[in-house]
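Good day; I would like, with your permission, to put a structural problem before you. The record follows directly beneath this note:
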Amino acid sequence: MAFGIKREELERWKTAVASGEIAFLTHYWLDPRFPGNKTVTKVGCSDLGMLSDWCLANGLNPKYIHNRQPFPHYDVIGSKQAEVLKREGKWEQLRKFGLDLGVKAPWEGS
């Protein structure tokens, strides 16, 4: 079950994914298969080659890409989620969902 996002956020993500961009959408998520994880970041791109390359560059196995057309995506959860969002500069998503784990945005100083 997904919640914690606005329709316009979802629509922006869908538009970016459909246009072949690597796009990030973080939302609250409860799934009994993953106890203790309360959020997921969907990293989507309609270009499966580009999405697969992104997975490999981030130490993720492209085998787990959800090839759900028209919005293929990879679900990033757990500690890897904060790592990826930090690397991608998604500070607002880190902050909004409490995933910063002590990480500050570059402009916040130490």
